[in-house]
Design a protein that fits this description.
single chain; mainly alpha; Leucine-rich Repeat Variant; 2 domains; globular; Putative DNA alkylation repair enzyme family
């Protein structure tokens, strides 16, 4: 049995009807799901210390909700050692996001370790994603920008992204824009408290 087959067997065994119902409630566009809860996926991601980028892509390409979440979580471990390859992979996967949860995981967990090496490149790409017509791609760009709320050099970029997103009426784009606004307000409040 291959590693991928073993992972899928574990996911099938861990899936429950309750988990499938929860996924449908909280991630309604996740139509292919095992019904595995996120803490179990987190545990599995920690155990897969031998995972490589090929496994990440195989998991993502399955189209299964939990396999895609797991792929995004596994990408985090490559970021410090291979930031350029990780970023190329993230960008490739970002064009195939099908729900808010995998997109947010990709934009946060997978990207976090590459920011030190590639922060300006990520911020620039985030602006392009925000200008996309696709709901999940636009949301992905907004979530990427949450990494930069404390960077004074990125404030104009964030303001432009929020202005662009303000006319978008899609629920998940509006929620991401609100998340970004809250993070900006929180960062500004902390900066004001520190200065005062």
């Amino acid at each position: 049995m291959s590693d991928l087959d073993s992972i899928r067997e574990r996911l099938r065994a861990a899936g429950t009807d309750e988990g499938r119902k929860a996924a449908q409630k909280f991630v309604p566009t996740a139509d292919r799901t095992y019904g595995v809860r996120v803490p179990i996926l987190n545990e599995l991601a920690r155990e897969l210390d031998h995972a490589d980028l090929e496994m990440v892509l195989d998991l993502w390409n399955s189209g299964m909700y939990e396999e895609r979440l797991l792929a995004a979580k596994l990408l985090e471990r490559f970021g410090r050692k291979e930031p350029d390859q990780t970023w190329r992979t993230v960008q490739r996967l970002a064009m195939d996001i099908a729900d808010w949860a995998t997109g947010d995981t990709l934009a946060t967990e997978a990207v976090r370790p590459i920011l030190k090496a590639l922060g300006p490149e990520v911020a620039e790409a985030a602006s392009r994603y925000v200008e996309s017509d696709g709901e999940w791609t636009r949301r992905f760009g907004l979530v990427l920008l949450t990494h930069f709320v404390k960077d004074p050099g990125q404030q104009a970029r964030i303001e432009a992204a929020l202005a662009s997103a303000s006319v978008d009426r899609r629920t998940y784009v509006k929620k991401a824009a609100e998340w970004l606004r809250r993070d900006v307000a929180k960062s500004n409040s902390i900066a004001a408290d520190t200065a005062g």
